[in-house]
Here is the input.
Amino acid sequence: MRLLTATGHTIRHSPRLATGLALLALMILLAVLSPVLVDAIGNGKDPLELATYERWLVPSSDHLLGTDQFGRDVLAMVISATSVSLQIGAIAGVISTVVGVIVAFVAGYKGGWVDNVLSTFTGILLVIPTFPLLIALSAYAKNVSLFQVGVMISIFSWPFAAKTIRSQVLSLRSRPYVDLARVSKARDLEIIVTELLPNLLPFIGVGFASSALGAIFGLVGLEVIGLGPGGVIDLGQIIFNAINTGALTLGAWPMFVVPIVLLTVLFAALNMINIGLEEVYNPRLRGVAGE
Here is the structure.
């Protein structure tokens, strides 16, 4: 109950955070309801099946966004692809955040040579251009599952979360209540879980949002240049098909415009959540923002 009250207080004090959460909730709701919505659009048919309808139908009352080059309903494709993109972002975000949190807490709390080794390794991964590596890796990732795609992308997205959280651990480990816990003979794991982790939840949230967003747009980048993993139809795949088939010149503009609009909304939502959390929990930034 106390957590819910604190969460409500946090949201009320940050319009950006409230707006970002509302937009993200709408997109998650769209993804959750995607099977029901796709069935409703098909009205007894499978709107995602090849040759279900005529090819390149323009937007109309029967097909609000028209059909693609294979006779599939574009609205059903976009709804299903949004769900796929969010699932990949969630999988990569969770894996990246878990790895980043473990590395950050071990490095920041232990310090010394452990911190030096882990920080150096994290720094190396941060400066390595990851997109060419993703391109090379995608060449061997054909017909993979959503989970495998999420794992593939998360390999390169955890260092940012680790670096962000480590700096906060370094700050918190010297606080009086942590020293008191050490004097009380509390174990390191107990101190991390009970004293440090609750104070770092906002920063962990920022790390998760950033990792998820990076994963979604990383996959979109691979899809747009035609190097995305096979068997996965996300928003990037629809954009690639629109570019590759000249959809705009055929009047099928929704294939290109609608996925970009949805990606823009998702980008805006996650960034507003990041900025809102930083404004609420970073007093210096809150002062600059005038709140």
